[in-house]
Amino acid sequence: MLKSIFTFFAFLAVASAVEHFYVQNNSTGLACIILDGDFQFNLVFNEANSTQKYTVTLNNTLEVDGDCNGVINNQSVQTLNIKFRPEGQSARYPKEWELNLVFGSSSNEAFKIVDYTLQTQRTDLVPFFGKFVRDEKAAGDVTATETNAYKCSTAKLGLVGGSTIDIKSANIIAFAQVNGTTFPTNQVYEVCYLDARTSDVVPIVVGACLAALVIVVLVGYLIGRARAKRQGYASV
After folding, report:
1. Residues in domain Lysosome-associated membrane glycoprotein 2-like transmembrane (predicted)?
2. d(Cα 13, Cα 191) in Å, to the nearest integer?
């Protein structure tokens, strides 16, 4: 029994652990990008007239860098570059994978993911490799306003060809000036559309169930009272 309890809490510890990334401004020492989350890559390869699908997770981070003062097409951007080993990689296929995230800013948004690429390599689990780029038609809401951060149970980044990057338990901020490399304790978060919609549905469902319960109790009370009156008349 005791062993089972230890196993359960060990599982919770592993499940709650997320990857932590940040980029600091070399001039100020302040963090401009902070990202917490677990990465899952849902990859689709079209090879030899067939479609092959694989799901891979980030296993071991090798190198993290970025730029707080980048410029692309005359627009200010901030970048986060992650080199990592995927799940299932062995010495047989030693090349690392690379993920590049580009954040932009506008008058309406403090930050938003505006571009991303994923360079994969062959592994024991994935016999193909390639470069995956952002699908401009894919919906994405990784954005926040003012000094807020972004929060989502699963943030999806669409890739051309039907592949996706899932960032689970995502907490993200960019174009920030954080004194440290972690989110401040008083950080305000903007919840993603899917989670916000779910949070609205739950109280509605709970309220409807409570209302139905009240109606059932009221009807039961009225029926019981009517029966009691009939029994009283019969005894007389």
Report:
1. 202-233
2. 24
